[in-house]
Recover the amino acids of this structure.
């Protein structure tokens, strides 16, 4: 028994650290903090009373007579009105968001975790609350309850809670089905403890982000009501200032400026901060597309400068595919390149099945993708050549590749259900490539497709032709994908673990199918797998990969008989021998404490 | 004849129908099985066979519609939530997916402490137990303060095993615990399972679809198909001389890691399927 | 749903309507006059009875009479319906088209300066409230440049050109917020679809890039896109209230604001129910469209 190997990766920075390093978060967060402090400390900052009207100072300019931002049409200090108005606006918004969070989070938690009747009830309630625009409901309410800001905001909070409810509910439902929650239940935790420990963790982040957006909406709606003239005339607020200013738009447009700018900046800061928060809480470290573009440019430049040692491409008549010194890498978030395949050489001959075997992280799937230029985002060929019919595929553009893929080289993916377009029928997806590559008419392509479906062992080909992907089983879907792969008469098929996602009995049938198709059509096959049984069953030659390198290669029969490389030995050693059966059961000692425990 | 530790009798698990006019779905159609103390019973089947449902029913994660499940004589089938929590001391689980069976935002220490804290084990005692557990599964002690994402699949399964052992259970339901692991890791983790069983005497219900795995680790094997157990018995017997046609097909379908032997098996399989089809009146046998 | 809304809103509005008669007639009216009006309006009846009376009328299409004006609620709403509907419909359609274009384009050009520009503008457009844009538009284009009249509305029946002219600024103000947030979500939906396994498999079949993007990916992103548009619609109905008031357009929005100030409950009731009906209809339409787009939904 070996001891544990070193940890796989270092822990990424915590969300708080990420936030502190993000300039957008710092600036927007800083501004928000500034505004909060300013409105909270309003009386300490300005000596003016926001409601004190002094007509002698009407429309005073900036800086005149101690008015920092001038005075409005009734001679009231604008700066003081901004501060004190901010108090009311911000407090009102906080009230609305507070109500929304309280109502939404609790109901979402209960509905999401416990479900049943409460779930139904609250879903209907939420739909009701979201059915009408908030403004309409608030105006209707205002007719009854009068102009009170606090009541309006409380009601708005209830309306907003529907959104929080949905957010929390779906987060909880997602977590409730996670295995670690099952494990907690088996460990004997009470439901409440599970909710507390596991569920709230997941819910915190999204709720916080939504709260920031809700604050923004609340301020906007407040202002909206006040602009309509339906606000509380006794309370100064940003919206009220806007309403006043708008009515004086022709006369003194500058009055518009201050509250507009402040509101806009406040709303922007909230949004930007919420976005930064979302990025910080996102656990995955994805490389940004911009970084990827830069990295790719560097790679292209490197390739160009490392001398054009373009030796003539000579291939035997027998050779279908020849990979030379292939290096594959991915762009990392920090702009560096992580090389995952370190210069491999392999070839596939006409009519043979080459097995590419390795464990996870060996680079086998990446190699297969690279041949067809189907690497995931951020991946690219760093060097080497992929020779096919006299051309280096590594130099082809996407458009040129569209003529090679499907027609000359075909691909069978691993996971059948997620590889069919859910919005189109099986038939449509089969016919389209055939019409493009083979120039068939719709009727011809349909006939050929149905014949193919029959050939791959589907019992009712016409029905499956008309079916949508979600209507067929996994085994059938894989047969459809195989039919698609051979449909345009390719010379090489790249099969990426085509049976891993299937049941054992279905696997055997698919292998039979692949073997018979290969014999009938004479295609070459590059079979990526991690299962030695499959190699033994279908592959003529095999290549073993470990961590991006080929460690051994040879004829299948020879390879199984004797292997040189230590890694290959280790792999073969790990195969469970059919002779290795567990020793017979021995009942434990009758005196054993455990038995005593049992019978007590 | 040792008295069984776990006794399942005529278990039926039915899920209610969604929407009207649909019949409820029977995942288990009357299953009987027993496990003796310290024994490993392998449960083999393909998707839809009900093997996972059986495991979940024993754990209290699937509803028991009819039949009984007794542990040491006590009924654990349809019990209240509080009684279920008592049972947690005796029955634990290791799941298939090492990536989602551990809460990604909890440290290893917190994960291992969870079952102990649920039973109000005092902190000092818990800490000692956690240290012992890490030893048992051969993980270094500095793993405690790390997060699951820093570990490989095989290491995470060891953590899951440690968590299952925390309360010193009598029975562990192992739901495809090595299916998501690499070949070389699989063998090591399987050996760990066997070693732990021999040392502590815990029993396993070992659910898997991999025939080589079940042969390697189980004393007895039960084969499931379509919600029923179609065959069961000693491992050697069932795997070399299967009686039921489905079991025969199942064994034949798994490829052998030897080209010559595999060619032979292919031929045997072809003959078997032809024979079974002929027996069924010329209709191709549904796998 | 509409029914449920009507019950809830009715209760809310009428629960405190006891003092309505006094409010309508003012402080100087005699007690007898108030009592007579109270009886006339049926405010003495228990709530469920009042609701039932209203409901029977509503089902016949009669929403009652305004408390403050001698007009039928139907008439008041009917007169204003075209204005608001024309405004909102034009805004919604333009917003949907623009958002789709912008969102898809940004997704395809992901990571380039175009994408970043779109994202920045979207953040700005979505964050800043619509009325601020409206005010800015009025200030620049109407007052300073004089290209448009700052207020007023021409019925399309009178003059199509005039109608277009009068709704240009309001539509722009309404749409900015909608396009900004929709474009972001559509961009996200498109990016999500493009990263799916089946897109890679479609590429592996040798389909031209434009087929993969515009035939397959777009089709799959359209579903989520429609959901976004549905949400936008409700938001726009809220925004239109303020816009109508700012631009002095005789539609729902200005009516509901006025009725709210006065406390003209029957009018408010009628308006709320009408809005509810419109929203339900539009959602129904969009659900049908979703069913056409997404085969999985069709089963039900």
């Amino acid at each position: 028994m070996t001891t544990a190997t070193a940890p796989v990766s270092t822990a990424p920075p915590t969300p708080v650290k990420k936030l502190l390093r993000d300039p957008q978060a710092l600036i927007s967060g800083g501004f928000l903090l500034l505004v909060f402090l300013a409105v909270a400390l309003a009386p300490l900052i300005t000596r003016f009373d926001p409601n004190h009207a002094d007509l002698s100072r009407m429309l005073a300019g900036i800086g005149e007579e101690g008015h920092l931002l001038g005075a409005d049409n009734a001679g009231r200090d604008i700066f003081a009105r901004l501060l004190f108005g901010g108090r009311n606006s911000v407090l009102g918004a906080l009230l609305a968001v507070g109500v929304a969070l309280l109502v939404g989070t609790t109901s979402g938690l209960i509905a999401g975790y416990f479900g049943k009747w409460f779930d139904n009830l609250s879903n209907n309630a939420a739909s009701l609350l979201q059915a009408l625009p908030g403004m309409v409901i608030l105006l209707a309410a205002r007719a009854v309850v009068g102009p009170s800001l606090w009541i309006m905001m409380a009601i708005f909070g209830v309306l907003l809670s529907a959104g929080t409810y949905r957010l929390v509910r779906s987060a909880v439902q997602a977590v409730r089905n996670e295995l670690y929650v099952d494990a907690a239940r088996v460990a004997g935790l009470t439901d409440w403890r599970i909710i507390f420990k596991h569920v709230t963790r997941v819910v915190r982040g999204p709720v916080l982000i939504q709260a920031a957006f809700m604050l923004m909406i609340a301020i906007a709606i407040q202002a909206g009501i006040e602009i309509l003239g339906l606000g509380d005339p006794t309370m100064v607020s940003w919206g009220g200032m806007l309403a006043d200013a708008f009515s004086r738009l022709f006369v003194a447009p500058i009055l518009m400026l201050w509250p507009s700018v402040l509101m806009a900046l406040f709303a922007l800061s909230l949004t930007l901060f919420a976005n930064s928060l979302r990025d910080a809480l996102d656990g995955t470290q994805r490389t940004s597309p911009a970084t990827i573009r830069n990295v790719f440019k560097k790679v292209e430049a490197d390739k160009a400068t490392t001398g054009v040692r373009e030796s003539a491409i000579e291939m035997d008549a027998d050779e279908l595919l020849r990979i030379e010194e292939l290096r594959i890498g991915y762009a990392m978030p920090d702009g560096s390149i992580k090389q995952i395949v370190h210069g491999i050489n392999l070839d596939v001959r006409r009519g043979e099945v080459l097995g590419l075997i390795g464990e996870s992280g060996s680079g086998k799937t990446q190699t297969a993708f690279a041949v067809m230029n189907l690497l995931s985002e951020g991946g690219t060929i760093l060097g080497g050549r992929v020779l096919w019919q006299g051309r280096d595929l590594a130099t082809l553009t996407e458009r040129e590749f569209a003529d090679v893929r499907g027609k000359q080289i075909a691909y069978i993916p691993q996971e059948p259900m997620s590889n069919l377009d859910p919005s189109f029928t099986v038939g449509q997806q089969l016919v389209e490539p055939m019409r493009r590559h083979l120039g068939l008419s719709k009727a011809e392509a349909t006939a050929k497709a149905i014949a193919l479906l029959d050939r791959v062992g589907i019992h009712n080909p016409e029905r499956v032709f008309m079916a949508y992907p979600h209507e067929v089983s996994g085994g059938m879907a894989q047969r459809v994908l195989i039919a698609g792969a051979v449909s345009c008469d390719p010379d090489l098929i790249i099969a990426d673990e085509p049976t891993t996602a299937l049941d054992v009995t279905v696997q055997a049938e698919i292998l039979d199918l692949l073997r018979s198709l290969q014999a009938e059509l004479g295609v070459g096959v590059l079979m990526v797998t991690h299962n030695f049984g499959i190699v033994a069953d279908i592959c003529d030659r095999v290549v073993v990969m470990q961590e991006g390198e080929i460690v051994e290669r040879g004829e299948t029969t020879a390879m199984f008989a004797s292997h040189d490389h230590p890694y290959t030995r280790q792999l073969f050693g790990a195969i469970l021998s059919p002779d290795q059966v567990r020793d017979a059961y021995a009942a434990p000692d009758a005196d054993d404490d455990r038995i005593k425990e049992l019978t007590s | 004849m040792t008295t069984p530790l776990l006794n399942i009798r005529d278990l039926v698990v039915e899920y209610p129908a969604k929407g009207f006019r649909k019949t409820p779905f029977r995942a288990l159609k009357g299953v009987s099985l027993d496990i003796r103390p310290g024994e490993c019973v392998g449960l083999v089947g393909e998707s839809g066979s009900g093997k996972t449902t059986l495991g979940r029913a024993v754990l209290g994660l699937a509803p028991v519609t009819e039949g009984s499940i007794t542990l040491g004589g006590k009924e654990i089938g349809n019990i209240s939530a509080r009684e279920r929590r008592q049972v947690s001391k005796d029955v634990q689980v290791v799941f298939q997916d090492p990536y989602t069976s551990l809460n990604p935002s909890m440290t290893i220490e917190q994960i291992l402490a969870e079952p102990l804290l649920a039973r109000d084990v005092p902190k000092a005692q818990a800490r000692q137990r956690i240290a012992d557990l890490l030893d048992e599964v051969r993980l270094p002690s500095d793993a405690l303060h790390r997060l699951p994402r820093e570990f490989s699949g095989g290491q995470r399964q060891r953590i899951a095993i440690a968590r299952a052992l925390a309360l010193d259970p009598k029975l562990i339901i192992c739901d495809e615990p090595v299916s998501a692991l690499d070949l070389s890791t699989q063998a090591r983790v399987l050996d760990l399972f066997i070693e732990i069983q021999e040392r502590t005497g815990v029993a396993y219900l070992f659910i898997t679809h991999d025939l080589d795995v079940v042969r390697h680790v189980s004393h007895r094997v039960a084969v499931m198909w379509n919600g029923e157990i179609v065959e069961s018995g000693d491992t050697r017997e069932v795997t070399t001389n299967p009686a039921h046609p489905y079991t025969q097909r199942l064994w034949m379908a798994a490829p052998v890691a030897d080209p010559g032997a595999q060619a032979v098996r292919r031929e045997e399989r072809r003959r078997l399927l032809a024979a079974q089809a002929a027996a069924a009146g010329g209709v191709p046998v549904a796998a | 749903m509409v029914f449920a809304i009507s019950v809830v809103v009715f209760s809310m509005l009428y629960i405190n309507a006891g003092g309505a008669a006094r409010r309508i007639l003012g402080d100087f009216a005699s007690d007898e006059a108030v009592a007579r009006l109270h009886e006339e309006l049926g405010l003495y009846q228990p709530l469920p009875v009042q609701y039932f009376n209203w409901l029977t009328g509503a089902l016949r299409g009669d929403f009652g009479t305004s408390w403050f004006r001698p007009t039928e609620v139907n008439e008041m709403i009917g007169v204003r319906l075209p204005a608001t509907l024309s405004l909102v419909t034009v805004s919604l359609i333009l917003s949907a088209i623009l958002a789709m274009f912008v969102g898809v384009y940004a997704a395809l050009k992901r990571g380039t300066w175009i994408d970043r520009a779109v994202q920045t503008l979207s953040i700005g457009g979505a964050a800043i409230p619509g009325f601020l844009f409206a005010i800015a538009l009025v200030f620049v284009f109407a007052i300073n440049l004089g290209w448009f009249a700052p207020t007023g509305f021409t019925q399309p029946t009178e003059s199509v050109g005039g109608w277009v002219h009068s709704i240009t600024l309001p539509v722009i103000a309404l749409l900015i917020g909608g396009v900004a947030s929709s474009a972001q979500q559509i961009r996200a939906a498109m990016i999500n679809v493009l990263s799916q396994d089946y897109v890679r498999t479609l590429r592996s079949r040798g389909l031209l890039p434009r087929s993969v993007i515009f035939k397959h990916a777009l089709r799959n992103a359209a579903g989520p896109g429609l959901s976004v548009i549905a949400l936008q619609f409700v938001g726009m109905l809220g925004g239109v209230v303020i816009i109508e008031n700012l631009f002095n357009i005789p539609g729902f929005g200005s009516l509901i604001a006025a009725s709210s100030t006065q406390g003209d409950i029957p009018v408010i009731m009628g308006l709320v129910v009408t809005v509810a009906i419109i929203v339900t209809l539009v959602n129904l339409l969009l659900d049908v469209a979703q069913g056409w787009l997404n085969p999985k939904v069709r089963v039900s």
About this structure: Residues 121 and 190 of chain C are 19 Å apart (CA to CA).
